Amino acid sequence: MGPALQNLLNFDLPGLTAWFTELGEKPFRARQVFRWIHQQGESDFAQMTDLAKSLREKLTQLAEVRGPPVKADKLSADGTRKWLFEVGVGNGIETVFIPEGVPSSGEADDADEDSPRYRGTLCVSSQVGCALECTFCSTGRQGFNRNLTVAEIIGQLWHASRELKRAGYGERPVTNVVLMGMGEPLANFDNVVTALDIMLDDHAYGLSRRRVTVSTSGLVPAMDRLGESCPVALAVSLHAPNDALRDEIVPINRKYPLKELLAACRRYLAVAPRDFITFEYVMLAGVNDKPEHARQLAELARAVPCKFNLIPFNPFADSGYTTSSADSQRQFRDVLQRAGYVVTTRKTRGDDIDAACGQLAGQVADKTGRVMKRINRETA
Ligand code: SAH
Ligand code: SF4
Fold this sequence. Notes:
The chain is of the alpha/beta class. The protein is built from 12 helices and 14 strands. Helix 5 packs parallel to helix 6, helix 7 (220-229) packs parallel to helix 9 and helix 10 packs parallel to helix 11 (326-338). Residues 130, 132-134, 137, 139-140, 183-184, 217, 237 line the site of iron/sulfur cluster.
């Protein structure tokens, strides 16, 4: 067997250029190949017709362009599409595409970024499972196996773009990326940042920083590092208005409590491409959805320019939680709005294919032993 092939999906443009230089190839050749891979979705070097035949042959011998294999591909009645990718034995990750509006000439209306005629959002996973154990999250319940590689993260966008172009979504089917799939993106920092670089690169997907959102449960030091190395839009999973409750449902809060988290949000805003942080707040009936919680939240968030995104809890088997009633959600929203905040409620999309927030389960060969522990506790 020869040496393993270099998967070029692992490289951002500087990385690919360095690799080409090692091969004795010119930087502009790397750029050409990078464009073939990400803009044309080409994985066959033989088809890269503007490269010398000798280079095409060399690449075929040394390299490959390989996204994770697709295990399942489901289409919801509302147009939402979900892919399950295989990432090793017993491990699968999920990616969700959420179209809104109709692609006209296939181009997003960039003249007005906030109300495009068409928006295609891809929700991307960053880890196999998640080690952070938020109590209401199906991914967290599944345990953790490993970080995804750059090729596995960008491979989700690469594959989706190729398939969606074929499905008639135009030349730019994905206009927005949210790192809100499985995993905590900032716990896989280096690979996520390299993947972000590729998303933003004009020679690849050319997404604007405002249209790429990292969602974090609040890893404070990594939030600072993200601001330094690759500031994109930031969403923070708040979910509770005080430390006592947040300690319980978002356990990372015990390490980085609210005061530190909010200070990190303020620091991030100094470099962020948007002038607000999005605070995500999952609505759990009887747990965090009372008017008193909304009042506390309004007070807490005063120091951070922000918008609230309320997420109706999406149930899964044995979660132990239920979704807040429509009335509670409305009251909660009204308290925040009266306090002067912009509040949106996330529409549930793709729930007929289990593609809604927090329902992404994929397949996780857990290495933490947590699932067993939990079952033992319940049966004890
Ligand atoms: N780990 C990151 C990003 C992935 S989760 C984070 O926690 O921010 C994306 C969003 O979905 C987060 O706000 C998360 O708290 C929320 N979420 C998790 N489980 C959910 C569920 N069952 N229903 C609704 N939202 C959920
Ligand atoms: Fe991990 Fe986010 Fe789920 Fe928490 S909500 S367990 S951080 S994926």
